[in-house]
Amino acid sequence: MPSSKRSELVLLGTGGGPRIWAKRSQPASALIVDGSVYVIDAGDGVTGQLAKSGIDTGAIKAIFITHNHSDHVADYGTLLLRTWQSGHSGPINCFGPSPLKNMTTSYINYMNWDINLRIKHEDRPDFKSMLNINEIGESSSVYEDSNIKVDCLKVPHGEAEPAYAYRFQIDEKVIVFSGDTSKSEDLIDFSLHADILVHEVLNLDGVDAIIEKTYPGNESFRAHIIQGHTTMSEVGEVATKAKVKTLVLNHFVPTGSPVLDKKEIWQNGVRETFKGPIIVGTDLQKIPL
Ligand SMILES: [Zn+2]
Ligand SMILES: [Zn+2]
Question: Could you list the mean pLDDT of each consecutive 10-residue stretch along the chain, which spans 289 residues?
Fold first, then answer.
């Protein structure tokens, strides 16, 4: 049954990892519910992707960060700053693991010269006071308003600790974002019967290509990539066990490989272990809820 509120999932950026490439923007997604905007992760390029999607940044109510790897937070500060500069008067509720408060303060210090000038000479409202920063981890319940109820779950992501998945409930619809994770039994329980599971995905064949391009022969880098992520067949297993209605693939590792980053490869890699609908995510893709 469709949600009674007009709601939509928008994939803003779907490329996983810190390298520079042209094909996909870094991880970021948005949920639009009854005109309100909720952003999940803020990788490099998020503000441009929001603009290209036609999303009103003035309607951003909350931002949820899964973990602090740079591909998920590189433009977190930029998102806050440019949203303010575009006329958002607050509040914006931000959620994510420690040290999110420190990162926010550091970014404000980094941009202090610009921020102070604009407040003084352009008569803009105070920037800092429009932000409500919350570090998560104590409780699984994160946020609730009239549109949405949000819970989090700690997921295993190698040495990147802590990392979180988020579950969004919009009326009777449930959308789960895995964040970055290796295969997780807890995530299966957390996603049980979800309408949509947005899950990261790793093509093992691509790992050596990444190592070769960045730091040839670096074994610990190789182990880091493999231990912290979920292979294509594992993603299918998770979706099948969780009995999710639709699986959306996101955070593609590797991204930018002309040989490996093809829709059919990802689709076929997951199809062996999940027979339901699979959406191979692309940047700026809109999925009605
Ligand atoms: Zn990542
Ligand atoms: Zn990560």
Answer: 76 95 96 98 98 98 98 98 96 98 98 97 95 93 97 96 97 97 97 98 89 86 91 98 98 88 94 98 97
Q: CA dist 161 to 157, 222, 254, 274, Å?
A: 7, 18, 22, 29
**Residue 146 CA to ligand 1 centre (angstroms):** 30
Structural domain of 48 = 7-288
CA of 98 to the centre of ligand 2 (A): 15
pTM, two decimals, is 0.96
Q: Is 98 helix (H, G, I), strand (E, B) or coil?
A: coil
What is the total count of domains within the chain? 1
For residue 147, CA distances in Å to 35, 62, 83, 253, 281 come to: 10, 12, 21, 33, 25
> What's the token pair of residue 177?
């974002």
Judge whether 83 and 92 are in contact, CB under 8 Å: yes
Please indicate, yes or no, if residue 45 is contained in any of the structural domains. Answer: yes
Look up the CATH number of the domain holding residue 59: 3.60.15.10
Please give the distance, rounded to the nearest whole angstrom, from the Cα atom of residue 81 to the centre of ligand 2.
24
- pLDDT for 261: 84
